[in-house]
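Hello again, I could really use a second opinion on something today. My current little project is about how a certain protein chain folds up. You're getting the sequence in one-letter code plus the fold written as tokens. Here's the protein in full, and shout if anything looks odd to you:
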Amino acid sequence: MGLSFEEKLDRLAEVAVQVGVGLLPGQKLVVTGHVDALPLIHRVVVAAYRAGSRYVLTDLYDDRLAVQRFLHAPRDSFEEYPTFQIEARLKALDEGYALLWVGADNPAAMKGQDPELLRIAGQTRAKHAKPVSDRIGQFAVNWCIIGAASKPWAEMVFPGDPQATEKLWDAIFAASRADQPDPVAAWKAHTEALEARVALLNARNFSALHFWGPGTDLKVGLADGHLWAGGAGRAKNGAVCVPNMPTEEVFTTPHRERVEGVVTATKPLSFRGTLLENIRVRFEGGVVVEATADRGEEVLRGLLDTDEGARRLGEVALVPHNSPVSRSGLLFYETLYDENAASHIALGSSYDECLKNSAEMTPEHKQQAGANDSLIHVDWMIGSDKVDVDGITQDGSAEPLMRGGEWV
């Protein structure tokens, strides 16, 4: 007999705490989650206390309340932000709290709202939250993001299906390995496989990656002293965590000035309540100089105008076409899942963990090495079974890395 829904929820909570967060004995935890994720959040709290947490703080939100601001608040108020929330989160980081986000957001929650207000609000939030996001990106503490099904989200993934929510839960369980006989062991084997791939790529020390396929001929130069990462990471407090659950990628830092060519998105991007379809971009000298989309182009242009770094790349990631998320055949409308279905690039800020000796480097030295800084970090998918990837060696020769979306 298969596992019951309740048993799978319990397993997902245990995996989130033990593998995702990698909670240390006696460590405190902040769980930030959507109200629709409460069935999972309840179990996460229990799992955290069973793992030895001294205190679990829950912080709930509801995107149905957030949209009321766009409907009713004064238009000149969208550059304001409750900075005390940032101060509280920084205090939690200072005190060593682990962080877990449990998302069940409706990807279309902001559909129909003024794109300019969405841009201003997003940029304002990113500007004020940057001290927090920088410290999280530097692995000041262990952290993780997971998903939980909600009815509005499920109805986007499975339109017109009366079993939509149940099917989305099943997809989440599968992608998170919570439906396997021993999820913790399954994650250990998976992260070890990703780490082996990381070791191979770091040993090759490619100077660039070349992507080509329908609508794509893109050369992504890699940062000087770049490092590949993937699977589990070690926070500065010694905890080992898997920040994104699920994760199927290995990734590194592009050189902000060495990206050339054209690229076409292979999957839609859900961003700020808008679906961006068939994104096409041309890079010169690392900068996006042309950008179009069949749908959501105005939002795309607003994203690119966030700041100077928004037109440059901060991440390039390789994901095999046969990943579990890709094999599901689903478009989740949620980057946490969709980015694990295909190789992708990210506009905006880069990760310190993907640069050698980054802890000893000034921001100026990081930029000289090729790292990028921005208020945004937005992933979009460029891989498929029709896209090939070569690694370009330091002497300029090409080595096949992926053919038809699969590792060679």
In short: The chain has a mean pLDDT of 95. The chain is about 35% helix and 25% strand. The two ends are 38 Å apart (CA to CA).
